[in-house]
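Researcher: Next entry in the queue.
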Amino acid sequence: MENNNVTRDSAILLQSFFKHLDRQMKVTKKNQQISVPRLSIIEYLIEEGPQSLKSLADYRKVRAATMSCLVACLVDDGLVLRANAKHDKRSKLFIVTNKGKTLADAQAEQDISVLEKAIENLTKQEQLMLKPSIQLLQKIVNYS
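Model: Structure for this entry, 144 residues:
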């Protein structure tokens, strides 16, 4: 019975932590050059390579019409290219441009800088505990 209480208490603490982290990241990202949804599309294209509109919409869990508007803005800004798919000329694939990759890299570097400053405020002992703690959180998130 006591183990169930520890598990539940930990789950409640994690839920609160993730909500707080999400709010904190939104505040940090307010000063960036591109919206979070658009940046996440660019990052996804960098990680996964060229994608169709449908796969991008599935990834972001939005309707194709919504995704169409998002990628149109990215294309207009020169961050993403629209290209014909090799297997079907009517199908379009979206590919990150060098400008898009540069922007995503700059944003990632800014995020790392913010986190480094926060970590510097921890004691040496807390800093040593951080990596195994993050690995545990990754294990929990990957289980879900």
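Model: The chain has six helices and three strands.
Researcher: Noted, moving on.
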